[in-house]
Amino acid sequence: MKAVSLTREIASTSYPGRGIVLGRSADGTKAVIAYFIMGRSENSRNRIFVETEDGIKTEAFDPSKLTDPSLIIYAPVRVLGNKTIVTNGDQTDTIYDLMNQQLTFEQALRTREFEPDEPNYTPRISGIVKCSGGKMNYAMSILKSADGNPECCERYTFSYDAPLAGKGRFIHTYMGDGNPLPSFEGEPTLVEIGDDDIDAFAQKVWDALDSDNKVSLFVRYIDIATGEADSRIINKNK
């Protein structure tokens, strides 16, 4: 697979939905994480990212307009020791709790399946990054219906040991806009991470997202040698 431009890949569709990017900086010193959310309904667009003690959570920008919090209010990012978990739903907590009980990332996700939002059956996408002893690795997962049939949950996990500098993987919930929304297909896309600092990288990703549908973006750079993290949040609602 040839690496493609991350920003061009993001911009290639008006509605990739929610997306996770994991990779390694071009100089090899940083683990790179990005997570974005988009929305078509007023309820989905009425959100912001806010920091928590161990990551971030979504909140209603205008609480008076919140109608159904079940699939839109959650903690997308949590840190467990030297591991950073990022997902598009409350499976973040499932992974955190079960890995804290010595289960693996994949075992934790076997207790979950795609979202119950008929007819889309939105996939649950998840990622985990580990930085330890000057090394990093990461894994990504998608839990999806069988071509829109909710009777079968298809489970895929992709693991990346010693990721190459300047490269990353991009997974998102939908292949594009539609009704119902078509689920992501195939392995996570190989993308160029580039050599931007965190602010330039975050701005490029934000600018690539469809202006009408984008809601919030989170970016984190983790120093692989020290574990120190630097994060940015961009919210459309201010």
What does the secondary structure layout of this molecule look like, with pairings?
Layout: E1 4-5, H1 6-11, E2 19-24, E3 30-38, H2 42-45, E4 47-52, E5 55-60, E6 77-80, E7 83-87, H3 91-99, H4 105-109, E8 124-132, E9 135-146, E10 149-161, E11 167-172, E12 189-192, H5 198-208, E13 214-223, E14 229-235
Parallel strand pairs: 1-12
Antiparallel strand pairs: 2-3, 2-11, 3-13, 4-5, 5-6, 6-7, 7-8, 8-9, 9-10, 11-12, 13-14
How would you characterize this protein structure?
The protein has helices at 6-11, 42-45, 91-99, 105-109, 198-208; strands spanning 4-5, 19-24, 30-38, 47-52, 55-60, 77-80, 83-87, 124-132, 135-146, 149-161, 167-172, 189-192, 214-223, 229-235. It is mostly beta strands and 238 residues long. It contains five helices and 14 strands. The strands form two sheets. A seven-stranded mixed beta sheet has the order 1-12-11-2-3-13-14. The protein has one domain (4-235): 4-Layer Sandwich (Glutamine Phosphoribosylpyrophosphate, subunit 1, domain 1). Helices cover 15% and strands 42% of the residues. The model has no long low-confidence stretch (mean pLDDT 97).
